[in-house]
What we know:
With 454 residues, this protein is an all-alpha fold. It has 16 helices and no strands. One of its GO terms (biological process) is actin nucleation.
Amino acid sequence: MGLVPPSMAQDSVPLKAVIEPPRPMKPLYWTRIQLHAKKDTKSALVWEKVQEPSVDFDEFVDMFAKSAVKEKKKPISDTITKSKAKQVVKLLSNKRSQAVGILMSSLHLDMKDIQNAILNMDCTVVDLETLQALYENRAQKEEMDQIEKHIRSSKDKENAKPLDKPEQFLLQLSEVPQFSERVFCILFQSSFTECVTSVQRKLETLLRVCTALQSGQAVLQVLGLVLAFGNIMNGGNRSRGQADGFTLDILPKLKDVKSSDNSQSLLSYIVAYYLRHFDEDAGKETCVYPLPEPQDLFQASQMKFEDFQRDLRKLRKDLNACSAETEKVCNVSSEEHLQPFKDQMEEFLTRAKAELELQEKQLADTQRIFLELSVFFSVKPKAGEKEVSPNTFFTVWHEFSSDFKELWKRENKYLLKERLKAAEETFRQAREKATYNVKPKHASGIKAKLGQKM
């Protein structure tokens, strides 16, 4: 075989030098073009003109290096020995067997990973979602009875048929010390805080809105304006005049009452009047919206006390169950497997009981305050309601506050322009005053003339 001419050898060598990054990098799945391999093409290529700029190599490596490579593991189904025998024992229903089989295929873990996560309450390798799936798919009592019965009956038989993979997997799970009880406690601990916080956040919103409507000075001023203008409009009317108050259902309808020339609504007039006469900060950045925020009112209108009660009842029931399961695990665990479960769960249970009691009290207080508020505003339950619901009460306020806020923002913008104009005018006048010079009087009397001659 002849030697390759130097020019040809050079042509076949890639133009770019090999780069060896100090750490493995994340891949970029492109289809590359190498110019040395494209010499046969007659067309010019853009890549012949493109120049690579020099870049901050170290920074880029830091940004795009691969994360620490996790050990690749086979699906757990592959770790369970497949029997050479053609026939296996299937004790689960087809549907159940299929569900467990799918779960096994999705878990790239060893059984020791699962056992470690459960016994050490460490969810870094086996996450909570996986634990949830394992818990939901665990063997039920009848299934375990059948599996154990088969193992006993085939113990001394030479040609005993082995269990199918899903059955083997359920058996291995059941061999993790107190699997069901421990996982129930771990899952409940993770969900408890989330549930309590969700209830707490909603109750705080509800309480904030109730307090603003009950004792907010600005709310009272707005309602006072509606009452005053309404009484003027209804002056002389026997059934509507001389009102001391009104039912809230009129509030969302104020925007539909138009002025004589149709140029504005009663609501827009009230908003403008409130800003000009009651709010010292009108037209400034410091101006504060006088009513509860529409978004808070909408959220409050969607809440139901029976939902809160149901959620807290379920938490109480699950907390009691968690306490019982914790006791069970502690009573039957070997010394080796007692910690950290015992200390962590006892600490959690003490805190959770206190938090739940606080939330139950908060719910009772908020419901009492809300019902007092509905009486305060003379709101009666709708047909079919035993007592006024947040939906009945806050829907009216939400609609009113949404309309009010839109006009309030518009009017504030207008007042801001007015303030700027006034400030500019004051500045202009001050500047003119400063530039106006008084000319000194020239002396022209006899005394001055005599002075000049001397």
